[in-house]
Design the sequence.
């Protein structure tokens, strides 16, 4: 039996102060034929203090790189961990033990329709199946997704967020009981006066030609009065001016390097820019702000020339 370990000291970035990562594997058997029985990693991110707290525990499947993992966050500093073993056990937990319960004890992930057997036909009982149609809580057909689950309790943005045995990678509205995925307001101001939000009121519309080194791009610019604050405290709202930009007429403005292989493209079709004030000839200020925004995007991404686009 031998234990292999490896340490990586990552360079701190942002609010990080110290970021070490430890990896390990436990081997058994003769030295020339030993095999790993368990492996994993531990990461510690020491950060500047924040108001964020949280605990997360995730159970994957036999196809997961780390079938069991999670984190503990206290005042922004986080301890991450993961185990590279126990895939079969994780699969049984996520798919078998919980979904074999009778309907009255089922976690209501999917409700079996009339005349259907009380157990799912999904893996691992039917290894050849990847999804199975069931009746969802909203009465519509939904797919049973073969993936892991998680328990998560965390605080962020003045709220307590709960995820209680929900799917790790997203789920459909109505798939789970409401109490299993929800947030609770913690800030008394949010409870009494409502969450902070933005409101927009259109003022004027203009067609502006945006000059770039390779071409001129016509856009639709809408001058808007922006308000930010709580719904029940209108006198405390912060007022400002913004311009909503619609670039669909010119099929978007090239603004960044496309590193998605063509899936995302190198163009932006809509965005907003702020104005310090609204002048009578606000179109001149808007044109300058829009061009500055595009040029900054290009400089940040290393943009050199636009990708060709298909003609209509």
Sequence:
């Amino acid at each position: 039996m031998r234990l292999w370990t490896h340490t990586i000291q990552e360079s701190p970035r942002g609010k990080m102060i110290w970021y070490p990562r430890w990896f390990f594997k436990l081997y058994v058997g003769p030295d020339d034929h030993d095999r790993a029985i368990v492996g994993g990693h531990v990461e510690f991110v020491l950060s500047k203090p924040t108001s964020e707290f949280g605990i997360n525990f995730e159970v994957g499947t036999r196809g997961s790189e780390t079938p069991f993992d999670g984190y503990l966050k206290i005042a922004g500093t986080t301890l991450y961990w993961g185990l590279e073993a126990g895939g079969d056990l994780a699969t049984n937990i996520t798919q078998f033990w919980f979904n074999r319960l009778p309907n009255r004890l089922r976690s209501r992930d999917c409700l079996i329709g009339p005349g259907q057997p009380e157990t799912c036909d999904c893996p691992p009982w039917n290894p050849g199946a990847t999804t199975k149609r069931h009746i969802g809580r909203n009465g519509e057909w939904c797919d049973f997704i073969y993936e892991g689950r998680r328990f998560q309790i965390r605080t962020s943005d003045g709220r307590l967020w709960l995820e209680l045995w929900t799917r790790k990678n997203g789920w459909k509205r109505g798939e789970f009981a409401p109490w299993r995925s929800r947030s609770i307001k913690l800030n008394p101001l949010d409870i009494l006066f409502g969450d902070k939000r933005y409101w927009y009121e259109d003022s004027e519309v203009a067609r502006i030609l945006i000059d770039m080194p390779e071409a001129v791009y016509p856009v639709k610019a809408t001058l808007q009065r922006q308000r930010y604050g709580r719904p029940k405290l209108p006198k405390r709202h912060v007022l400002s001016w913004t311009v909503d930009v619609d670039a669909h007429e010119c099929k978007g403005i090239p603004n960044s390097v496309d590193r998605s292989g063509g899936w995302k493209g190198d163009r932006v079709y809509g965005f907003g820019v702020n104005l310090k004030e609204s002048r009578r000839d606000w179109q001149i200020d808007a044109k300058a702000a829009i061009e500055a925004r595009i040029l900054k995007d290009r400089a940040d991404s290393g943009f050199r020339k636009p990708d060709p686009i298909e003609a209509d």
User: Anything to note?
Assistant: Helices lie at 87-97, 188-193, 282-301. The two ends are 67 Å apart (CA to CA). Residues 282-301 form the longest helix (20 residues). The mean pLDDT is 83.
